């Protein structure tokens, strides 16, 4: 006698949601009838590689993680280009923009994040865009064929990657940042200085310590005005000033939200039938913008959906790597340091190498690497495991190869 399978509906066809589905299918294949709604008309793709698509190093097909046949082969009911617009939690049903209605026994919300749009005059002009999707990249590629000048606002990871990609496509690019330190959330002043020189050598113009005031144009963006009264002409403006959790749908359904959808250590919301993962969530007052936490959340959430409820999510330290060809930059942990910490620093200006390790007692707590990042993963492991580095302290800056004998000896002792 067959039994009816419970229904799982997934809102969001991005990396976090689909990683959860992947893990679930491994843990409990066939447990659920699964329906997935995606706002974009594409399969699940690697958003991290959008900058490489922009620069021409990858095609749209090459960044695809799960094309539509993958879903069909696993019996997943896939709805592309059809976002869910309403969740009826009382009846446990979702309603899509195209009128599709599906019931659920468990609901997984993975709506990701939305780019921050500066609320400035002219921000709604055509030609002012974000950098978050394949459509955004396609828009930029079209602009690069007919336009000459671009302004990228935001000196974080996405802004630098967008500026580099547009420059490689032949545009004259000005990168605008409100601080005098690029990647000020990820690296220190010394590494930023080396990065600035590298970007300038690539032909990028930089406007640091500069506040954007407005955008001007007649029917389309034609330039940017700054707080000091200066202006610069532009045919394309890319805003890369951060993202916010996309929690609007969850909030409208009555789920408890603060900055994001509030979840517990099992990734369950205040409604026991509803889970959430990825950039849309808030866990212990923290929100997330990197892929590593999303992967960890996916594994925990999948185990609970699979009814193996033994895992708990604990936010861990993360590492950052810039994805610009020819620029090797890596940071991890508490690279700022402060009271009770000390720095180990290696500088080799001729070879363009800078390494800074932040120590606290006998442990590495942070790292910034520029020009030589081969040991980044090893340093990150030292941070994560709180390894006692006393035996290899004097060789630590030279990397794993020079430290391994000391590390092995310490482990044996």
From TrEMBL:
<feature type="domain" description="NADH-rubredoxin oxidoreductase C-terminal">
    <location>
        <begin position="319"/>
        <end position="386"/>
    </location>
</feature>
<dbReference type="Pfam" id="PF18267">
    <property type="entry name" value="Rubredoxin_C"/>
</dbReference>
<keyword id="KW-0274">FAD</keyword>
<dbReference type="InterPro" id="IPR023753">
    <property type="entry name" value="FAD/NAD-binding_dom"/>
</dbReference>
<feature type="domain" description="FAD/NAD(P)-binding">
    <location>
        <begin position="7"/>
        <end position="297"/>
    </location>
</feature>
<dbReference type="InterPro" id="IPR016156">
    <property type="entry name" value="FAD/NAD-linked_Rdtase_dimer_sf"/>
</dbReference>
<dbReference type="InterPro" id="IPR041575">
    <property type="entry name" value="Rubredoxin_C"/>
</dbReference>
<keyword id="KW-0285">Flavoprotein</keyword>
<comment type="similarity">
    <text>Belongs to the FAD-dependent oxidoreductase family.</text>
</comment>
<dbReference type="InterPro" id="IPR050260">
    <property type="entry name" value="FAD-bd_OxRdtase"/>
</dbReference>
<dbReference type="Pfam" id="PF07992">
    <property type="entry name" value="Pyr_redox_2"/>
</dbReference>
<protein>
    <submittedName>
        <fullName>NAD(P)/FAD-dependent oxidoreductase</fullName>
    </submittedName>
</protein>
<dbReference type="InterPro" id="IPR036188">
    <property type="entry name" value="FAD/NAD-bd_sf"/>
</dbReference>
């Amino acid at each position: 006698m067959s039994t009816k399978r419970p229904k799982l509906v997934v809102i969001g066809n991005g990396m976090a949601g689909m990683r959860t589905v992947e893990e679930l299918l491994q843990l409990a294949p066939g447990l659920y009838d699964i329906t997935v709604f995606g706002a974009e008309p594409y399969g699940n793709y690697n958003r991290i590689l959008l900058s490489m698509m922009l620069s021409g190093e990858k095609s749209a097909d090459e960044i695809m993680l799960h094309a539509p046949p993958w879903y069909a082969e696993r019996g997943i009911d896939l709805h592309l280009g059809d976002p869910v617009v309403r969740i009826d939690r009382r009846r446990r049903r979702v309603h899509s923009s195209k009128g599709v209605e599906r019931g659920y026994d468990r609901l997984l919300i993975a709506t990701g994040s939305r780019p921050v749009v500066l609320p400035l005059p002219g921000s709604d002009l055509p030609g002012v865009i974000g950098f978050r999707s394949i459509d955004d990249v396609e828009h930029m590629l079209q602009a690069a064929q007919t336009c000459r000048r671009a302004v990228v606002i935001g000196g974080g990871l996405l802004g630098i990657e967008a500026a580099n990609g547009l420059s490689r496509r032949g545009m004259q690019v000005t990168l605008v940042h409100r601080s005098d330190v690029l990647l000020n959330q990820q690296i220190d002043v010394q590494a930023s200085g080396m990065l600035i020189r590298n970007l300038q050598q690539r032909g990028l113009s930089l406007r640091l310590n500069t506040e954007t005031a407005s955008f001007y144009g007649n029917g389309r963006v034609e330039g940017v005005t700054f707080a000091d009264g200066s202006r610069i002409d532009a045919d394309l403006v890319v805003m890369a000033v951060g993202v916010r959790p996309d929690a609007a749908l969850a909030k409208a359904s009555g789920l408890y939200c603060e900055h994001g959808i509030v979840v517990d250590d099992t990734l369950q919301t205040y409604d026991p039938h509803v889970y959430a993962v990825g950039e849309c969530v808030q866990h212990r007052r923290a929100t997330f913008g990197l892929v590593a936490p999303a992967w960890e959340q996916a594994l925990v959430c999948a185990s609970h959906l699979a009814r193996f409820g033994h895992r708990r999510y604990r936010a861990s330290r993360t590492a950052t790597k810039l994805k610009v060809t020819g620029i090797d930059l890596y940071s991890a942990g508490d690279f700022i340091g402060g009271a009770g910490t000390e720095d180990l620093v290696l500088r080799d200006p001729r070879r363009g190498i800078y390494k800074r390790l932040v120590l606290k007692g006998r442990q590495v707590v942070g790292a910034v690497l520029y020009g030589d990042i081969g040991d980044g993963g090893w340093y990150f492991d030292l941070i994560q495991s709180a390894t006692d580095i006393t035996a290899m302290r004097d060789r630590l800056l030279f990397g794993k190869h020079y430290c391994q004998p000391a590390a092995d000896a310490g482990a044996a002792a």
